[in-house]
Amino acid sequence: MAVGAAGIVVLVLATRAYGGDVASSRVMQLVNGAGDSGLIVTIAAIILASFISEDLTCIGSGLLAATGAISITTALVGCFLGLWIGDVGIYWGGRLIGRRLLKIPPFKWIIKESAVLRGTAWLKRRGAMVVFIGRFVPGSRMPTYFASGLLHTNAAAFAIYFALASAVWVPLLVGGTYLAGEALADRIVFVVGRPMMGLIALGALLLVAVKVIEPLCSHRGRRLAVGFWKRKLLWEFWPSWVANMPVVLHALWLGVKHDNLALFTAGNPGIELGGFVGESKTRILNDLDPPAELRLAMTLLAADEAPADRLVKVRAFMDREGLSYPIVLKPDVGERGKGVHVVRSDEQALEVLGGCVEAMIVQEYAAGEDFGIFYYRHPTAERGGVYSITRKVFPVVTGDGRRTLEQLILDDPRAVCAAKLYLRVNARRLDYVPPDGKTVQLCEIGNHAQGAIFMDARDLKTPEMEAAFDRVARRFKGFYFGRFDVRTRSIEEFQRGENFKIVELNGVTSGPSHVYDPSIPTREVYRTLFQQWRILFEIAAHNVAAGARKPTARQAFGALWDYYVLRGLGMRPKPRLQTDRVMK
Q: What pLDDT sits at residue 356?
């Protein structure tokens, strides 16, 4: 409804500004009516449009005022009411519905829980001033206002704060656009050649100015801009869909060559779809059945249980295994470290358990060095080998007694590349000022997407290490290709194939993660990844020829749909393919 109302008012006001045919005039008469009714309709439409995009509505209203379509007073009043009503609505959403709203689409896509946690921490430390500042700091308004309702702050007082913040912001944006529109509208219309196109061009120009120039006025905004451009230059920070596009095209070409796009999923017949997507971590580890000295204690929590009931089971598991905090909580189905938490108290555990309605793993925490070991074995080979070794380093910043943790992250030449991630992970302590010389670790999940630094450690490979992983891999019937995530307290013992713990085993889409080492040239990255997929298709083709179930593209793409679409909407898909427990 809001979209339709906004579209109608823009169309009608543009017609009013630049003239139109008889039909347009009749529309004008219907909307404007007589006297004050037209003014009320216009203000109501501006309010509705502001619920879609506040900045765009302010800019559009200022432009329409500049062209004489509406008065500047109408533009200011409509935008002020739209922003204030929207802010109060966000507050009451947090107050009445709370964290439940963060798990419901589309709200969970718009308001991130990590941002709400940061807003909550700000409010507890700095009080109402944060509400006023939030209106002017990009990305902080919605989570901060939501957090103010979540904390059940004084509703009347905060409604006044929202009004004061809007009373400052609206005149700046609407008034600035109004003045700019008067000065530039005729020139842009002359260059573009059409009045309506000129108005749209001017609006787009001013919107870009607001979105780009405003953040650059702060140190935080400038450093985030530096990080943005650095990520564009360094392969390890490219968006996954961009970085993997050549690999996907190569895999599709191999699929066409083998007359089966999904053939690669037969690389591990013992894992559902080979570990392509949506596989169960506990099922894989249970089927691997590593020796007792290499295992980490774990148990599975069923989906949809109450957080308090889950916590009882967590405590029972810890008592049974003789464990104390910290422990690891993570989804049974997941990728790239999403949803993995190291928790150190019942309170943290309850918070994490309440934020995930899917099946979860409780796992013993293993301290020490974190490594990724990529292994493969051709079904006809007597032994398998270690193709890649990745050392996972957890980044730190060093305090100077003056700057906050947030400033240290933004000022660090490498941390700034992943600043948004580190700011989200450390949302509760961004105002902490570390003493001079004190180091602060920025993350503790051994995944590049979650902030770990990946280093090429192939020089650590030894025959004893390869033999140890080959013995473990052979325990899993139908496993030939994947990556072990392990932890060890001693690199020397690890090289002897001793004293390490298996955290996870990943299947056909895991890959050799040493390519994320920033010292490796991009051409070598793709040469390695292309070779990985050629090996995978060769193994899969042999497995199918030996009697493994032949996968179909429909099953593979269906699994993608289930994982990325249905799960994103909160729906639980059914299994599409059973594993071949024993090779025929």
A: 78
Q: Residue 298 pairs with which residues in a beta bridge?
A: 363
Distances (CA, A) of 19 to 5, 13, 196: 20, 10, 11
State the Cα–Cα distance between residues 116 and 98, nearest whole angstrom: 11
- Alpha carbons 459 and 455: distance in angstroms, whole number: 11
**Could you tell me where the DSSP H helices lie in 488-561?**
491-495, 522-545, 553-561
CATH 3.30.470.20 location in the chain: 258-279+367-394+445-584
State both tokens at 449. Answer: 């997407």
Q: List the Cα angle 270/272/275 in 5-degree steps.
A: 90
Angstrom distance (rounded) from CA 19 to CA 14 = 8
Rounded Cα gap, residues 443 and 441, in angstroms: 6
Per-residue tokens: 411:
């000022």
Overall size of the chain counted in residues: 584
pLDDT tens sequence across 57-109: 888 888 778 777 788 888 899 999 998 998 888 888 877 876 666 666 555 55
* CATH code of the domain made up of 258-279+367-394+445-584: 3.30.470.20
Q: For the chain, what is the radius of gyration of the CA atoms? A: 28
Distant-in-sequence contacts of 157-161, Cβ < 8 A, 24+ apart: 157/128, 158/91, 158/128, 158/131, 159/84, 159/88, 159/91, 161/128, 161/131, 161/132
Cis peptide before 106 (omega within 30 of 0): yes
Q: What is the pLDDT of residues 248-268, one digit of tens each?
A: 999 999 999 999 999 999 999
